[in-house]
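Trying the structure run again after the queue cleared.
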Amino acid sequence: MIIGVMTLEFRLHGNDSLKGKRQVAQSLKQKLRNTFNVAVSEVEAQEAHQKLVLAVVTVSGETARVESSLAKALAMVEAISPVELVRCDTEVFSSSGEA
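Done. Tokens:
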């Protein structure tokens, strides 16, 4: 089993409320879930108005499939996101601890 985790950090310039942040987060999460069948969650800075950090997780039996899925998800986020993507980290793990 291969597990892929992609962490995306966004800056929400000009956002002054958690409601505005939640709208952006919910939209991105739904689009990722619906398009790529991945798990998505806000993982850091939940109370910060101008910072959004999402974790995208996928599981497969093949490393190439995990990497491809996360790369396609990143490309979609870059294309559709109304906010600035400032950081993207990707990690791939195997169930035996090797990737």
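Residues 28 and 81 are 7 Å apart (CA to CA). Worth checking whether this holds up in the mutant runs.
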